[in-house]
Write a structure and sequence with these properties.
alpha+beta; conserved putative lor/sdh protein from methanococcus maripaludis s2 fold; Elongation Factor Tu (Ef-tu), domain 3; six-stranded antiparallel barrel; 7 helices; 23 strands; 31% helix; 33% strand
Length: 435
């Protein structure tokens, strides 16, 4: 009996589970019909030949340098204050002005101080005249016994002494009574006391001359102090007064800074503190303006907070090209006789924060990760990763993992090297013609 084809109604009679089973068997049957052969593994890649100039690593002179950052400070900063009380009548400076030492900054009203000078001169002249001292005669040259008051009292004392001597002779002869002699002796004692008093008075007035001379000098000094002068060569940092301002003694008026030379102040880490010395070379860089100086001063103690040691270096600033407060970088050469491994920058590859070189050993080229340090004059210090005697490619851009060949190797020989290092399947495929 002929088999009838399966219709949709028959599929419905079979049911969903049986239908899924049938479909799965069909899929497995189709997969089994495919070729069971696995695809061939890719042939190993050929070892690439690498050529280029080589560099043998050896230690070279490489000074120990401490790189620090710091700022410039004025060599001297002077806050100039008024020394006397008064009203300002003239201001001869402003912010940024260059002032020479001795130049006028501010003038105060000097009317009252001129009168004080006149008064002191008159008092001094009065005291000098009282002891008979001329205006141009020094007080040290005056003999108090030769002063007019002393000579006057000395004459009276001499007269009284002579009178006592005469009356004593007459008393001895019985020509006068005792009361007359006693009266003369009393006069002599009074004359002696007046003499000593006049002598002491002259000496006191001589000392008073010194006092009045000092008072005159003080008045003259106060008069001079009404003119405020610059104590040093510098630049005006600030001015806090104007014409008409009434100032007290000690009140700040002008702030003046000496900016030639300037002081570069920075600090080195604690690990360099024992190597830092006065006189060591310092290379400074202020946004491209390079200066060379040396360590001038070193703090006697480390900062306990930052564990660093502060030092200063003098920086010449003849044309005022540098300013106080300017930020700069410095390289302090701590040891000029030290050595280190350094390579040209062309021999280093930098990628994704990793530094490496191409090391050549036993005819093979492989990469080596290195730790770099300071850069100077086109050379880069290698702290770790290379040792003396190692060989690397001098031009890292031409490097890759492979076999090193001499630059003089012919192109045909390079082709033979590639063929000899290829797999047998790849060599056969290259030798066979394509159909």
């Amino acid at each position: 009996m002929p088999r009838r084809p399966m219709t949709f109604k028959c599929l419905r009679k079979i049911g969903a589970p049986a239908l899924r089973l049938v479909l799965g068997m069909l899929v497995l049957t189709a997969a089994g019909c495919q070729s069971s052969e696995m695809p061939p593994a890719p042939p190993p890649s050929a070892v690439a030949p690498v050529s280029g100039p080589l560099l043998t690593i050896e230690a070279i002179p490489w000074p120990i340098v401490a790189r620090v950052q710091g700022s410039l400070f004025a060599d001297e900063v002077s806050t100039i204050a008024a020394r006397v009380v008064g009203r300002i009548v003239e201001v001869d400076c402003d912010l940024g002005d260059s002032m020479a030492a001795g130049s006028v900054l501010v003038r105060l009203d000097d009317t009252e101080y001129k009168l004080k000078v006149i008064q002191a001169e008159a008092q001094l002249a009065q005291v000098r005249a009282a002891i008979g001292l001329k205006s141009d005669e020094p007080v040290d040259g005056l003999n108090p016994f030769n002063s007019p008051p002393v000579r006057e009292t000395k004459a009276l004392l001499d007269e009284a002494q002579q009178q006592v001597a005469r009356l004593k002779k007459l008393f001895d002869q019985g020509a006068i009574v005792a009361t007359d002699l006693e009266a003369a002796q009393s006069v002599e004692q009074v004359a002696d006391a007046r003499y000593n008093s006049s002598l002491n008075s002259v000496r006191e007035k001589m000392a008073l001359v010194e006092v009045q001379a000092a008072q005159l000098q003080l008045a003259e000094q106060q008069l001079n102090d009404t003119v405020v002068l610059a104590p040093l060569d510098g630049v005006v940092l600030s001015r806090s007064v104007a014409v008409g301002t009434y100032v007290q003694a000690g009140q700040p008026i002008v702030e003046l800074a000496k900016i030639s030379p300037l002081r570069f102040r920075a600090s080195v880490p604690e690990r360099f503190a024992r190597q830092l010395r006065v006189g060591q070379p310092v290379l400074l860089n202020f946004s491209g303006d390079e200066r060379q100086t040396q360590v001038a001063r070193i703090s006697p103690a480390l900062d306990p907070a930052s564990r660093s040691l502060v030092f200063e270096a003098n920086v010449l600033n003849e044309n005022n090209a540098l300013r106080s407060g300017l930020f700069g970088q410095a390289e302090v050469i701590l040891d000029q006789r030290s050595t280190a491994i350094a390579i040209p920058s062309s021999a280093l590859v930098r990628f994704a924060g990793v530094d490496k070189v191409w090391r050549v050993a036993d005819g093979k080229v492989s990469e080596a990760v290195v730790l770099v340090g300071r850069e100077a004059d086109g050379l880069i210090e290698i702290i770790d990763g290379l040792a003396s005697g190692d060989t690397i490619l001098q031009i890292a851009a031409d490097g890759q993992a492979g076999v090193y060949v001499e630059e003089t190797l012919a192109a045909s020989e390079k082709a033979e090297l590639v063929t000899s290092t290829a797999s047998p399947q790849e060599a056969t495929s290259k030798a066979s013609p394509t159909h």
